[in-house]
Amino acid sequence: MTQHGTYGGTRPPEPQGAFGFDPWYDELASGREGWLPVAPPPGGVPESRRNGPAYDEAGAVYLAVQRSPEFQEVRRRHRRFVFPATAAFLGWYLLYIVTATAAPELMARPVGAGPVNVGMLAGLGQFVSTALLTWLYVNRARRRWDKEAFDLRWDTQLRTRGAAR
Amino acid sequence: MSLDWNHQTLALVLFSAFIAVTLAITTWASRRRQGSPEEFYAGGRLFSPAENGFAIAGDYMSAASFLGISGLIALYGYDGMVYSVGFLVAWLLVLLLAAELVRNCGRFTLADVLVTRLRERPVRIATGTSSVVVSVLYLVAQMVGAGTLVALLLGSADSAVRTWAVIAVGALMVVYVSCGGMRATTWIQIVKAFLLMGGAIALTVLVLLRFGGDPISLLSDAAERSGRGEDFLAPGLLFGENLVSRLDFISLGIALVLGTAGLPHILSRFYTVPTARAARRSVVWAICLIGSFYLMTIVLGFGAAALLGSDTVRADNSAGNTAVPLLAQYLGGGAGTTGGTVLFAVVAAIAFATILAVVAGITLASSAAIAHDLYASLARRRADRPVREVAVARVAAVGIGAAAIGLGLLAQNLNVAFLVGLAFAVAASANLPVLLFTLFWRRFTTRGALWSVYGGLVPAVVLVVLSPVVSGSPDAIFPALDFAVFPLQNPGVVSIPLGFLAGWLGTIGDRTGADVTRHAETEVRALTGAGAA
Fold first, then answer.
1. CA of B377: how far to CAs of B267, B369, B451, in Å?
2. CA dihedral defined by B507, B512, B517, B520, rounded to 10 degrees?
3. Which residues of A28-48 are buried (b: 16+ CB within 10 A; e: fewer)?
4. Ranges A91-100, B464-473, B518-527: which has the least confidence
5. Are B435 and B266 within 8 A, CB to CB?
6. Which chain regions cross the lipid bilayer (chain A) (predicted)?
7. DSSP state letter for A114
């Protein structure tokens, strides 16, 4: 999936920043700079044109990309993080909500000598866990799948453009 | 609240200044327009992540949060905090499962994401309808808030003042949207986000300075002056009455956390940046801003309880909506002093700016749903459709404005925070299941999508109609009637699972099966960004 040379496209310089993949860099990837082929019409192919031979070929490209090991790996890494992370934060939030209704006396139990109790700490904990998970996700996305996804994008667009001709 | 002439004059001057700035932005944006859908719905897609992050925060932090949540905390302590927590945690769902994938697959609306793999016409009609319903509910909440706020701040109990405030807000939002499109709307959100954050930071610092920077003594004083002691900092004051109100609390909590990712005006914000990674960065900006803002609403709420006392807050407005303006007046030196007058007027003007900006964002999203989804599917196709579609969107904004004004006047006695909770519940029931199924479930079919949207939307709306919000209680829209057979105010705990269940049933019973090729296209595009608009 990385044989860009065969398509004769001008490959952009490697988007490598100080922290691995640099998300600021690909501001340029929107096609404004002109080097990135904008393959199928944005928003998908309109239904009226979905039966033409060009569309079938583009569909074959998407199927091939989807079945490629590179894409499978990107998808696996993405899902292996976001699904457990979603389950974890939703579970922790539901625990916070349900405990407040089912066991308010537990939430009212004081911590230390002051006015602080378990419920207040749990509420603050939600803020902390949100910040932590955001940081983890962004960091991971940058290191674990951004670059691979970017390569696949480049490759897929070149191939679907070829198919549309 | 009795206001002397100086308060009113200063508040009006600041209101007018903000309106002048926003109209200037609108004029500037409309002079550069070319009339393309890209420009009208998505502002040309050239906003930076930081700009979009501020705009998202501006779209999301409504007056209901600034005034309503702080007020609820000032009155009920701990139970008010659930709004602050729920509104923030919801963003994790947007960050992890929605923002980047939606940016990669879609163009302008939620339906654009779905039609990459589902049949276009029925799906557009379904999600267009649900998006309009969600937006109108949310708009009504903001309109009611605007009427109440302006009437309170101008110190007039006169219902004519409220009526004119609602009409004025409606007229202004139509002007912003139909003339300025997404570009004007976005810049208005950014200006508003700066004002709101600035105001919140200033008040928070002033509150903390009163307590020598010690939040523990702030909490102790709040508990003491609330008249409830330790109970003020524990759950139960607002929702602990009986089993029904506890269930309502859970229902609201679930709706808050799942609704955000289904709000059309939030989803459409991701289309204003060039790439999925820019969308991710905008969410990170938004989470930072929104998280610190909701932390500050907690400080302000407990600060109002500690410095003013819950009874003083309740005496001024039984729903607590004036807690923050009163707190500002107190921090500035008290009623009658120059400092108190200035701070009060500034806070009032910020709250007003907040409402104007939020309604503009929602109006734009709903006019996009009408023109891009409903009109484009129902009307016959023409060669010049893109230009005509934008014209339809501009007209749709006028219609939405009129509907929101009418409903806003009808619902004047409803609690703003509850109305917002309803909009979130409908969004979570009708829009979230179909979005997640489309992005993550291989076998999902068009029939499943239709079942999911209508199977979430219809129960949510019907349960609201049958709830005590509409009839059978003194605060209801129709207090004289009583057909409230559903006890909960918020339908989320029932209607959200129904939306997911309907989508699942509709899909597994569909013998045609999913389109493998188009599922491949959706998945590849969502994760890599190939062919993104």
1. 20, 11, 19
2. 10
3. bbbbeeeebbebbebbbbeee
4. B464-473
5. no
6. 81-98, 118-138
7. S
d(CA B530, CA A38): 8
Mark yes or no for CB contact B233/A100 under 8 Å.
Answer: no
A 73-102 → B contacts, CB under 8 A: 74-75, 78, 82, 85-86, 89-90, 93-94, 96-98, 100-102
pLDDT band at A8 (very low <50, low <70, confident <90, very high): very low
Closest-CA residue of A relative to B121 is A47
Amino acid type, A8: G
Domain annotation for chain B: domains and CATH numbers = 5-25+47-528 (1.20.1730.10)
Q: Using DSSP, state whether B509 is helix, strand or coil.
A: coil
**A48 has a pLDDT exceeding 60:** no
CA distance B390 to B259: 28
- Spatial CB neighbours of B293, under 8 Å, sequence gap ≥ 6: B57, B61, B65, B196, B197, B200
Identity at B532, one-letter amino acid code = A
Report residue B417 as tokens: 């925070």
Q: How far apart are CA B28 and CA B422, in angstroms?
A: 36
Q: At what angle do helices B416-430 and B120-153 cross, to 10 degrees?
A: 170
The answer to whether A149 and A74 have CB atoms below 8 angstroms apart is yes
* Contact between B325 and B96 (Cβ < 8 Å): no
| Residue B513: partners with Cβ closer than 8 Å, 6 or more residues away | B443, B445
Q: Is the dihedral of CA B326, B331, B334, B336 positive or negative?
A: negative
Cβ contact B449:B118 at 8 Å: yes
Phi/psi of residue B68, each to 5°?
Answer: -65, -50
**Position B182, amino acid:** M
Instruction: Number of helices (H) and strands (E) in chain B: give both, helices first.
Output: 25, 0
Helix/strand/coil (H/E/C) assignment for every residue in B220-269: HHHHHHCCCHHHHHCCCCCCCCCHHHHHHHHHHHHHHHHHHHHCHHHHHH
CA-based nearest residue to B131, from B366, B359, B294: B366
The whole-model pTM stands at 0.89
pLDDT class of B9 with cuts at 50, 70, 90: confident
CB B460 within 8 A of CB B495: yes
Please report the beta strands in chain A, taking only residues with DSSP state E, as ranges in sequence order.
16-17, 20-21
- Report the C-alpha gap between A16 and B49 in whole angstroms: 19
Going by the DSSP 8-state scheme, the letter that residue A144 receives in this structure is I
Domain range annotation of chain A: 48-164
**Structure token digits, residue B317:** 């407005």
Size of interface A-B (CB pairs under 8 A): 205
